[in-house]
Amino acid sequence: MLSNYFKTAIRHILHHRGYAIINITGLAVGLAVFILTASFVDFHLSFDEFHKDADQIFSVVQVLSSDIKGEHHTAKIPAPLLDAFRGEIPEITGGLRWIQTGRWVIRHEGQKYYAEESTVWAVDANFFSFFSFELTAGDPKSALAEPQSIVLTRTAALKYFGEENPLGRKLTLGNFPAFVVTGVARDAPLNSSLPFDSLISLNSFGWQNDWSTNCAAFVKLAAGTDPGALKKKLFGLFQKHASKLSVSPVDIYLQPFSQLYLESAHIKGLWRQQSRITIYMTLIIGIVLLAVVCFNFINLATTQYLTRTKEVGVRKVVGGNQRQLRWQFLGESVLLALIAYPPALVFYEVARPLFIFMIAQGPGRAYPGLWDNPQLFIESVGVAVLVGILAGCYPAVFLSRLNPVQILRGGMLAGKKGTRLRQVLVISQFVASLLAVLVALFTFNYYAYLSKLDLGFEKDNVLLVDLGRNYHNALLKPIKEDLKRHPDIEAVAAATWIPVNWNSELQVAQETLSGQKNMTMNAYGVDYDFVELLKIKIIEGRSFSLRESDGANYMINTSAAKKLGWKYPIGKKLTVRGKQGTIIGVVEDFHFKTLYADISPSILYLNFNYLNVLYIKVSGQSLSRVFNFIDNRLQFFEPDLPVSYSLLTQRLNDVLLGTKKWAFLAGSIGLIAILFSCLGLLSLASHAAQTRAKEIGIRKAHGATAAQIIRELLMYFVRLIVIAILIAFPAFYIIDKMATPNLFASTADTGFIPYAYLCSGLLALISGLVAVILQTVKVARANPVDSLRYE
């Protein structure tokens, strides 16, 4: 019996090769995209699961009051507090400090390397026993115990020492004494929220005893301990040491380590973070396309199976029952889905590099493939089988119920219920396709909006030079003066970081008649001439000046002035990190934090000690002429500095690249979905041609013209597309209102809705009509004698 079913299925597939190719290709594309998105989501949901005690590890989070932003959650606490936690709370069995050390110039045997601030961390000596990172060389208990010790990952060791044994070798970081390599660790797994290239012993700097040094503090609780029950004890310790704190928290809680990656967007922390919305949107993309393909499979299968009704009638006459017929057609559907699985894997491998480029958030942000996850491989096979079952259910049930007498007499085979189901499927396909296209159009439009957005500063012809850390204003002053000698260099300034990914925050206190009000503001450390170089407009007051004692003075933006309630802020006092200063200037709002959020109240202050980036304003088209000059002068003043250039405009474009890639991804999926929706519409047209052939013949025999019949049939299909449009547009409007405030600036007005609805609606109508017009014309022009000769 099974052998007969299999032979029949193969014979049918070979006999209808065109139908089989369309269905197999569609299923393969749908499965490939689903596997891509599912593997991406599975990877992101697996973050930090490799740590053996992950469920017992928590991050200490303090809640600070802010009259501007409400409660401010930060995972940074004064470094010495961790010792108090471990010593006075018995439920805490271990703790670890994780401190960002900044950017370094690393030197070894005459070679110079530049290390980003997210790659070098200072940690406690128990790092390798607290977390499950693996040390391949060196003693995990003592590798970070001594001052001036450094542990490198395998990749970092190869970078600095090649294939030589790095243990005992020395590296010079900045102006500190040489660090000795005491261990080599495996590279941090891709699904780690704590990435690193190098780890430095914390006692190299004495930060563990410095109350002004903030760190991410992780604690390990005894098994069975309720983290919520420790809030009171933790808060009590903060109050006990309140005199040493610059700001006292209003609450303390423990955030589970397993939730740091996806559930800590509201916390300012020192780890990798990702939004669940992005992850689930990616999965929805795969599911939507798979659903469209599955609907298309059902439509094509139903139409194709109408040619097999006589086969069903004969099988029933000779003794076949409904159960056997259902298994036969379900088996054929599953077989077709399994045949589509190998091509799906081929499409997956071909598309995976492009998909990673489109979805990744930065260089190296890849993720393991299907072959690295046996469970996901098995699950994907299961999805293919499930798609085959779901796609084959309706044809199997429909055909198995047919009356053999009616079949062999040539009666009508399709009732209203079957037609309505196919109509619903086609409408669903177009709704899903329109939603994908609308998302793509929205994202493209938002990208264009951000590209033309007034940033509040001048970005063109600004060259950025990464300096490293701990550059003092006094050290930079002669460099700046020397560079300005070049006729094509208009201005030189420095700052701690770069717009528009500059999210530094400080606690600010305002004295009022009712007492002191605390708030969190974005705070930007700059050097003299910074405001002038970027041409940030000063509305009131003045900028920082070398002729004035501005070390304790501040400039604020208009948003800060409004939130502080000051109509005339010049001369007013603010306390920042315990240092009171005077407002000397008010500037227009500027986008330093991020383009995807509303402008926040911000403060500018002079930072003399941690200037990391040099800004060089070049005139006109002179960039290429000044590179050699800048490189020569910087090497003269700082021979150990590996000069690294970038343009401010390019940095801004890099920030927007993710939005642009998302638009291309959604648009590609939308166009593919529309293609398969048109195939579904074509199958419905073919079905209509078969079921209405005699009706059309009678109409033509009574004088109806081909144009009238074409118009009637086209209006029938246009009605389905219009229904899909009427469903998709309100649905997108609701999704837009719910999701946009969580992803983009709530005040952004891109003028998107009118033209996007028009474009997507026309795209659906035109593609749908093109898909059915040839079939409709063929039916309308058919000779009525052909359909009525046996009546």
Strand content: 15-25%
Main sheet attributes: strand count, strand direction, barrel closure:
15 strands, mixed
Shape: elongated
Number of strands: 26
N- to C-terminal separation? 38 Å
Round the Cα radius of gyration to an integer and report it.
Answer: 34 Å
Enumerate how many helices there are, as a single number: 21
What portion of residues is helical? Answer: 40-55%
Q: Can you give a write-up of this model?
A:
With about 800 residues, the chain is of the alpha+beta class. The chain has a domain at about 460-655. About 50% of the residues lie in helices and about 20% in strands. The protein contains 21 helices and 26 strands. The longest helix has about 45 residues, at about 650-690. Mean pLDDT is about 80; it is low at about 785-790.
Concise structural overview:
The chain has 791 residues and is α+β, with helices and mostly antiparallel strands.
Summarize this structure as a short list of keywords or feature phrases.
791 residues; alpha+beta; 15-stranded mixed beta sheet; six-stranded mixed β-barrel; 21 helices; disordered C terminus
